[in-house]
């Protein structure tokens, strides 16, 4: 019997390219100004056309400034405006859809694509960005590629791919109050390692996955990149259909997607490789080191015999408690945790509270749609009152491209997905956690859980 | 098109760590233009230079050792090239002069990027053989792609073997243009699309009027 992944693979298989590679039809190509720009310019140089511009999209997210009231070409890093202006010019010349810096639909590609209905169940979708796997949350077969592969997909409408191994990650049981999809993914990566995904297509199954909202599923699938997987996928269900209904690029008539959902539900979950997780055992997690696999329970300690290079970079010693470490910065945003529910989780901790002295707080909604909804709910007021910068959508401080950031040596708790050396700036020490833990740490001035904060009545 | 890869003899340098990510291989701040060129100086910038953004060599970094001068084979741990999909990491390695990387395992996007740029990613059948030698840098490595074998000067008598699929092997041996190759099957692509438009019309709906909200 076929898995849902097998079903999508077969449906998109044009032909065998040789004994192990297949030609797989690509339904949507997404590009951003950081890596897509190179693909578009190389394609033009070689004299190839985009086979079907109506199914290709370029979106500005990586280099754009997150400054409130930013200019149209304003980049975060010196000289970064060239990526914006060149991508714009090339996207227009190629005739592909362009979601520009000032478009009301702009946002981080993996946040905006679901919102706009560009990512849909059953589509194959590629983007020269490793977190394209996020979109598997909608039941799409989506994976990250390099720029050369993006050129290939644009020019030919297909890719030559070897069918990956499949792993079922079965997550049953219920997450406890205060435990999030982010904690679940950090748990998986720390338990099975940053290459535990074995370059496989990982399908998340089980009652705990069914119980997650679409936004939480996007968080879970997002970090399949940090798990070393080819991609992640979750079968579409009634929640998925309800989510995509009425989105600008979604079909107005959903009968094809409902029958796909029915087919998905009859597909087998059986695979030779299975990882079983009991959701009720998962506790809030935070990373201590420079790989996403370096995550421990929030009330845990740095491993006693951790690699010296990681400890040195992070300014820690083996065996030390994670909680209580003084911090200088926090960031809430990114394709992992920059959606409305993430901002709500952080705001519910921040409400009526303030950043601890000496802590810089930055919140950048993942898209204009998220930002507008957040403002309609008054969340911007909560963040601003707490002393946070409230930014214009994009990748912002998730990665460092030059320009201004947290100072070297500063300790930052971040809702993002990567704690690599220098990821958020030279010498910056990133601890990955859920938005609520980021917010609690911001208030405490040290790494903390929301429950560690004095209750507001005590404060008053 | 990248230079074909048939047989290569060169100097090895070892970075024996796991999970070396593409942010280390080429920090984002070193990707200054919309181009595949001019990246070699930024290769491993965070480790290779004494201070961020500077160009003073860090004497402790393996690539800066006298013996590693002109290195073209990188020996490393598992999950090499994890993280960002930026192909700039491979362009920087290629421009610096690397032709092959011997790692316990690779990130999948990075692995594909290597093949597209004339760099041979190798995982030896007996990768543990490399745990024996103390890498001091400067070892001579000979890689033969047609026979899929590796010889290393510090391991006399030993011959390492590695697996590679036919398509990537052809890509490297012939320095093929994959787009041109696929477009030779245009008939297949067109026939598939015609059938698929019937089967899944919603995928091809005309969105020219759709305005993102
Ligand atoms: S938010 Fe961060 S991880 Fe996500 S696409 Fe942007 S840079 Fe990459």
Q: How large is the share of residues in beta strands of chain B?
A: 5-15%
* Shape call of chain B: globular
- What is the count of β-strands of chain B? 7
State the share of residues found in helices of chain B, binned by percent. Answer: 25-40%
Oligomeric composition of the shown chains: heterodimer
Distance between the termini of chain A: 62 Å
| Widest sheet, order of strands of chain A | 5-4-3-6-7
The hetero compounds bound to this protein are: iron/sulfur cluster
Q: Which class do the helix and strand fractions of chain A yield?
A: alpha/beta
Strand content of chain A: 15-25%
From the helix content, strand content and strand pairing of chain B, which structural class follows?
Answer: alpha/beta
Low-confidence stretches of chain A: none
Structure in words:
The complex is a heterodimer of chains A (460) and B (213). With 460 residues, chain A is an alpha/beta fold. In chain A, 33% of the residues lie in helices and 17% in strands. Chain A contains 17 helices and 19 strands. Chain A has helices at 4-12, 36-46, 81-94, 109-116, 147-156, 181-192, 207-211, 214-222, 238-244, 255-266, 308-314, 334-337, 340-350, 368-376, 379-386, 435-444, 456-459, and strands spanning 13-16, 21-25, 28-32, 56-59, 97-99, 124-127, 141-144, 158-162, 166-172, 201-205, 231-233, 273-278, 285-287, 295-297, 329-332, 360-363, 389-390, 411-414, 429-432. Chain A has a 5-stranded parallel sheet with strand order 5-4-3-6-7, covered by helices on one side. A 5-stranded parallel sheet of chain A has the order 17-16-15-18-19. In chain A, helix 13 crosses helix 15 (379-386) and helix 13 (340-350) runs parallel beside helix 16 (435-444). The longest helix of chain A is centred in the first third of the chain and has 14 residues, at 81-94. The N and C termini of chain A lie far apart (62 Å). Chain B contains 7 helices and 7 strands. With 213 residues, chain B is of the alpha/beta class. Chain B is 25% helix and 15% strand. Chain B has a 7-stranded mixed sheet with strand order 4-3-2-1-5-6-7. Chain B has helices at residues 22-25, 45-48, 88-96, 108-115, 166-174, 178-183, 186-199; strands at 7-15, 73-76, 100-103, 120-122, 140-144, 149-152, 160-161. Chain B starts with 6 loop residues before the first strand and ends in a 14-residue tail after the last helix. The chains are: A alpha/beta (460), B alpha/beta (213). The interface between A and B is large, with 82 and 63 residues. The structure holds iron/sulfur cluster. Iron/sulfur cluster binds next to helix 12 of chain A. Iron/sulfur cluster is lined by residues 62, 108, 110, 129, 131, 334-335, 395, 398-399, 416-417 of chain A.
């Amino acid at each position: 019997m076929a898995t849902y992944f097998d079903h999508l693979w077969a449906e998109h298989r044009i032909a065998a390219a040789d004994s192990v590679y297949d030609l797989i039809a690509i339904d949507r190509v997404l590009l951003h100004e950081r890596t897509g720009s190179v693909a578009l310019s190389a394609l033009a140089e070689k004299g190839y056309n985009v086979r079907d511009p109506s199914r290709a999209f370029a979106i500005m997210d990586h280099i754009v400034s997150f400054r409130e009231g930013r200019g149209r070409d304003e980049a975060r890093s010196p000289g970064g405006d060239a990526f914006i202006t060149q991508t714009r010019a090339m996207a227009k010349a190629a005739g592909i859809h362009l979601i520009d810096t000032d478009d009301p639909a702009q946002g981080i590609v993996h946040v905006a694509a679901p919102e706009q209905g560009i990512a849909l169940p059953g589509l194959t979708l590629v983007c020269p960005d490793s977190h394209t796997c996020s979109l598997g949350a909608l039941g799409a077969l989506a994976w990250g590629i390099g720029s050369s592969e993006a050129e290939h997909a644009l020019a030919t409408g297909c890719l030559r791919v070897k069918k990956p191994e499949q792993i079922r990650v079965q997550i049953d049981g219920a997450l406890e109050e205060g435990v999030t999809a982010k904690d679940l993914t950090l748990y998986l990566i720390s338990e099975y390692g940053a290459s535990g995904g074995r370059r496989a297509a990982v399908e998340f199954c089980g009652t705990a996955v069914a119980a997650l909202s679409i936004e939480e599923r996007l968080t879970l699938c997002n970090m399949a990149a940090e798990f070393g997987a080819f991609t992640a996928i979750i079968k579409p269900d009634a929640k998925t259909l309800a989510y995509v209904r009425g989105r600008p690029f979604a079909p107005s008539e959903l009968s094809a997607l409902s029958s796909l959902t029915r087919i998905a539900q009859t597909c087998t979950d059986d695979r030779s490789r299975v990882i079983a997780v009991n959701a009720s055992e998962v506790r809030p997690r935070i990373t201590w080191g420079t790989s996403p696999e370096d995550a421990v329970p929030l009330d845990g300690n740095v491993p006693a015999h951790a690699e010296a290079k990681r400890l040195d970079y992070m300014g820690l010693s083996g065996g030390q408690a994670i909680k209580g470490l003084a911090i200088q910065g926090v960031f809430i945003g990114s394709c992992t945790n920059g959606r409305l529910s993430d901002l709500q989780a952080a705001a519910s901790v921040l409400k009526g509270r303030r950043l601890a002295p000496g802590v810089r707080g930055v919140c950048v909604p993942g898209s204009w749609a998220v930002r507008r909804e957040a403002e309609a709910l008054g969340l911007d007021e909560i963040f601003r009152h707490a002393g946070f910068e409230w930014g214009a959508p994009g990748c912002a401080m998730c990665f460092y491209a030059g320009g201004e950031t947290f100072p070297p040596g500063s300790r930052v708790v971040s809702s993002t997905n990567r704690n690599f050396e220098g990821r958020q700036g030279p010498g910056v020490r990133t601890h990955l956690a859920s938005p609520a833990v980021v917010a609690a740490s911001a208030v405490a001035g040290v790494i903390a859980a929301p429950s560690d904060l004095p209750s507001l009545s005590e404060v008053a | 098109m990248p230079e074909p890869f048939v047989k290569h003899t060169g100097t090895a340098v070892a970075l024996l760590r796991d999970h070396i990510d593409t942010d280390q291989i080429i920090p984002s701040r070193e990707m200054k233009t919309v181009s595949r060129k001019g990246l070699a100086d930024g290769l491993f910038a965070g480790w290779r230079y004494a201070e961020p953004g500077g160009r003073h060599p860090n004497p402790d970094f393996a690539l800066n050792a006298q013996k590693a001068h002109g290195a073209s084979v990188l020996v490393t741990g598992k999950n090499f090239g994890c993280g960002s999909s930026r192909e700039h990491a491979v362009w920087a390695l290629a421009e610096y002069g690397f032709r092959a990387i011997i790692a316990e395992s690779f990130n999948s996007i990075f692995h594909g990027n290597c093949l597209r740029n004339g760099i041979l990613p190798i995982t030896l059948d007996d990768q543990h053989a490399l745990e024996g030698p103390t890498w001091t840098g400067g070892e001579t490595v000979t890689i033969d792609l047609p026979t899929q074998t590796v010889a290393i000067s510090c391991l006399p008598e030993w011959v390492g073997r590695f697996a590679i699929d036919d398509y990537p092997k052809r890509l490297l041996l012939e320095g093929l243009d994959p787009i041109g190759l696929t477009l030779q099957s245009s008939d297949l692509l067109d026939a598939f699309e015609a059938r698929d438009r019937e089967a899944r019309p919603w995928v091809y709906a005309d969105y020219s009027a759709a305005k993102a909200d």
